[in-house]
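User: Please predict the structure of the protein below. I'd like the answer in structure-token form so I can feed it into my own downstream comparison script.

Assistant: Understood. Taking the following sequence of 313 residues as input:
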Amino acid sequence: MTKLEQAAKRAVGQALRLKPGESFLLVTDRQKMEIAEAIAGEARQAGAETTTYLMTETLRPIQAPTKLFRGLMDKAQAVLYMLEARIEEKPFRGYMVKTGTERARICMMPGITRDMMERLVNIDFTAMDAFTRRVIRTVKNAGRIEIENPAGTRIAFSVQGRAWHNDNGDIGKKGKHGNLPAGECYTAPVEETFTGRLVISLIDDKLGRGLMEFEKGRLVRWSGAGIGAIVKNIAGDPTGMIVGEFGIGTNRGARICPSMLEAEKAFGTVHFAIGDSYGLGKNASQHHYDALVDKVTIRVNGREIARNGRFLI
């Protein structure tokens, strides 16, 4: 088997855990066809009834599903999404996540590449899962988390009472939602406690330094071309301007790169999202945009658990 085929076997057998007779919907585009063919081949070997949906360029950007596509989603027991990431398509991605978790289980792989498949999916997730669980035990129910970095990030917030999710590559049960590559834990900050500034290196696959300032959970000031493009796409929707996620990267092999799918998993980074909180917080939105902060120092109730991008636990 090639490395890509081995990675596809991991995605089908270790992550989605497809079973004989299950209905599997694979949503792809032309750019990802090589990966889609490898995954579809492994799904067939697993005995799943596989349908591949090709999103042509003439239909993009897509923001809402067709009636026919809704019918496919309603009947699927497992879904895999791997379109090239585009900010205009966030409403469609939001629909995919919401419907996929309500009716089935869904693996999101926006912007996946062959290199990422071979390097980050073709692995045993056991050690990564164990470390991620350790991080969750350290931060769970914290009344005060402080994040700083040398670029000027200074923000504090609470996660008290908020549930944490372990994105460990296990997407084998109904209601599950996760990424491949995997390797993060995340929750939603308590919105009214979230005040301060983030100096970011990446937002939703747009490189470049940016500044985001929050007051009581709401984005009130910003600068940077990437953030400007995001705010323009939000188009005045107030739900798109509220903090919805705080995540910590736990994948030792992931790198800071133009793809948020990989960058947000990198060791020594955290990320914050504005928009939908995936049911973990108060905010529901058709938008969800991740912003990466690197070289972080993290304090949990006064205890330093990471310093300048290196974990101390």
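That's the full token string. Helices lie at 3-15, 33-45, 67-75, 90-103, 114-121, 126-139, 225-234, 260-263.
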